[in-house]
Design goal:
The chain contains six helices and two strands, in the order ααααααββ. It has 184 residues and is an all-alpha fold.
């Protein structure tokens, strides 16, 4: 094995998870209040993602779940949804806080609930699809429509909010950047 020079070792040390290149934020990146609000918002987005995948009725779980409340055919992947929502929320927080010009790209794949949940919760989805209002009826319709290729599918589509198709035949999606409306 070839010995590592002092210069090479210094470069390696800079790339470690807790090295100087990684530790650029002084103090806590979020205040305690921001952390609580961000966590609550993320949990709400995760609930919307679960509802899109599993529920066709009873969106607010006002009554105990019954078989007729659950979709017969499940679309989307729960596994990718929390991570996509986490990234979406934090990027929007940073866009708002730092007045950034940036693009969040997601796809292709069945992770649409992880992106559409935050878009619905911030109100953008209801602006585009007025029948998906921000109330129990709208949430029910939001959950029900996520079931087939003819409706909103597990793959983001260009006509959805914040979506712009790039080479649709290759199933590439690129949400267009815009200012955050998340109230965090």
């Amino acid at each position: 094995m070839t010995p590592v020079t002092e210069m090479e070792q210094a470069s390696i040390d800079l790339l470690k998870a807790y090295g100087k290149a990684r530790s650029t934020v002084q103090g806590s990146p979020l205040t305690a209040d921001e952390l609580l609000k961000t966590d609550a918002y993320w949990r709400a987005c995760n609930y919307l993602a679960l509802g899109m995948i599993y529920l066709q009725d009873n969106p607010l779980l006002k009554t105990p779940l019954k078989p007729e409340h659950i979709k017969n055919r499940l679309l989307g992947h729960w596994g990718s949804s929390p991570g996509l929502a986490f990234i979406y929320i934090h990027l929007n927080r940073l866009i708002k806080k730092l007045d950034l010009e940036m693009i969040f790209m997601a796809g292709p794949g069945h992770g649409a609930p992880g992106v559409l949940g935050p878009v619905y919760l911030e109100g953008t989805y209801s602006e585009i699809y007025s029948d998906k209002s921000e109330d129990e009826r709208g949430m029910r319709e939001f959950f029900k429509q996520f079931r087939a290729v003819s409706a909103v599918t597990a793959l983001p589509r260009p006509q959805g909010p914040s979506m712009k198709a790039v080479n649709w035949d290759m199933c590439c999606r690129m949400p267009a950047a815009r200012r955050s409306t998340i109230p965090i």
